[in-house]
Design a protein that fits this description.
The protein has 12 helices and 12 strands. The protein has about 325 residues and is an alpha+beta fold. It folds into 2 domains: about 200 residues, Jelly Rolls, CATH 2.60.120.10; about 110 residues, Homeodomain-like (Arc Repressor Mutant, subunit A). The protein has a 7-stranded antiparallel β-sheet with strand order 1-3-4-11-6-9-12, sandwiched between helices. A hairpin with a 2-residue loop joins strand 3 and strand 4. The chain is globular and about 65 Å long.
Length: about 325
């Protein structure tokens, strides 16, 4: 996991260090401001990352088109006026700004406006959109500039961002992201959820019904694939890709045939496998190791889902 931490009061050093993390840009203190109080911690894994950034002073930031990545900028406090792609939004803790790679930006950050910024590589976004659509996109993905953060979908996505930030802040060998399969699943989940939670150029297409001529056969093939490979770094997107359908087609068929979702079915298979592993575990085994081995990154959520399915905690099963 790449990590950068910077503290400086010098404007030119602040511009250079932030530019190394993101891209070259103009950084101008607002009228009457002579210095900054930059505090930055940037961490990445795979195609995503978290940057905690605070200039400490009122500044104007003018980057050229980002070209290779997207940013979701969430103020912790204060506000930011963001102009991007012909639109303007006043960003607050309740309204994030989402920058797409194709246009320059002009941003005025107020004093005392620390931001948590989610970074996503453009290739990662394109790949996850292709999985959702069942084919490569015909053109660039452009998000709406303002993202309301108090909707149910955005709230769920933000919980994932906070979890990613917490794990990225841990020593490498103590983080769940040290396990490549877990890191890959989290990256796909966060980018996929962003594509479903916030409006962009393909939102309407993703919302269209996705019929399949033989839904029962498709679901049977999907169930077999999941049962045979749920112990691997498998995601619903990869199941859909292997079956040559879109994620929404797979979801629609599961709902029609089984009244559930492929995500829930995959999770149930993993819970059942973890239950078997806990019952068969020998001395020295741990709930954490078995949970991670079976693809559960969030241990608290694993424990809750496990109790709901089996009527006892994982640790109780392990002690039997």
């Amino acid at each position: 996991m790449d990590a950068v931490t910077v503290r400086t009061d010098d404007v030119e050093r602040a511009r250079a260090e932030v530019g190394r993390v993101f891209c070259p840009h103009r950084l101008t203190p607002e009228s009457g401001v002579r210095s900054v109080r930059l505090r930055m911690a940037a961490r990445r894994t795979g195609g995503v990352g978290i940057v905690d950034l605070d200039y400490g002073r009122a500044v104007r930031i003018q980057p050229a088109p980002l070209e290779t990545f997207y940013l979701v900028q969430i103020p912790r406090r204060g506000s930011t006026v963001v102009r991007h792609a012909g639109r303007t939004v006043t960003s607050t803790p309740d309204v994030a700004s989402v920058l797409s790679p194709y246009d320059p930006s002009d941003m005025h950050w107020s004093e005392g406006s620390p931001h948590r910024i989610f970074y996503a590589d453009r290739r990662t976004v394109d790949r996850e959109l292709a999985r959702l659509l069942g084919r490569p996109a015909d053109g660039p993905v452009r998000f709406d500039l303002g993202m309301i953060m108090n909707t149910a979908a955005a709230t769920a996505w933000r919980r994932g961002v906070e979890f990613l930030a917490d794990e990225l802040s841990q020593p490498t060998d103590e983080s769940l992201l040290h396990h490549p399969a877990v890191a890959a699943r989290l990256v796909q989940a966060l980018v996929g959820k962003l594509l479903l939670a916030h409006r962009h150029t393909y939102t309407d297409l993703l919302a269209e019904p996705a019929p399949h001529p033989t839904p029962g056969r498709l679901v049977r093939r999907a169930r077999t694939l999941i049962r045979d490979h749920h112990g691997e770094a498998l995601t619903v997107g990869e199941v859909a890709e292997a079956l040559r359908v879109s994620v929404r087609t797979l979801q629609d068929c599961f709902r029609r045939e089984l009244q559930t979702t492929p995500t829930a079915y995959l999770r149930a298979c993993r819970l059942d496998a973890a239950h078997r592993a806990l019952r068969a575990a020998g001395p020295g085994a741990s709930v954490t190791a078995i949970a991670v081995q079976h693809g559960f990154a969030h241990l608290g959520r694993f424990a809750g889902e496990y109790r709901a399915r089996f009527g006892e905690s994982p640790s109780t099963t392990l002690r039997r």
